[in-house]
Fold this protein.
Amino acid sequence: MQKPAVLTVHYVLKNKLGELVDTSEGSEPLHFLEGSPEIIEGIQKAVKDRNVGDCLEVTVPPAMAYGEHKPELIRKVPRSMFEGIENLHVGMKFQTNTGDAAQVVQVVGIDGNLVRVDANHPLAGFTLYFDLEIIGKREATEEEINAGHPLS
């Protein structure tokens, strides 16, 4: 069985209007272990069996990215849960610890003593448009495979 690869990829992410959402240009490229759950399925499938120097245009539907937007992940919570937070406003993000995993929620509304928070990923429900350039690819070490991510 072939070991997974460690890939290094520059990316440009745009929305359906062609507007820039995110990019690695001018910063660190994406560095990941093939098959890692940290990278969306659409990117994983696009770079599989590709080589250094390959440039790809990839359209990733929500099901292969961050999933559909789930209305049930929008909740109203008491403002008292934000005690000590000055100037609480729409757009603020907080990390919460619910169950086994930490989760990021965004304030999407404030109505008196109730705060509406959204636990959906900000890109949930959207088709994503990527330009990818593979700039590095090597076999993962046993340590990286066990860790589930690149170590260098």
The chain has a mean pLDDT of 93. The beta strands are 5-14, 20-23, 30-33, 55-60, 74-78, 93-98, 101-111, 114-118, 128-139.
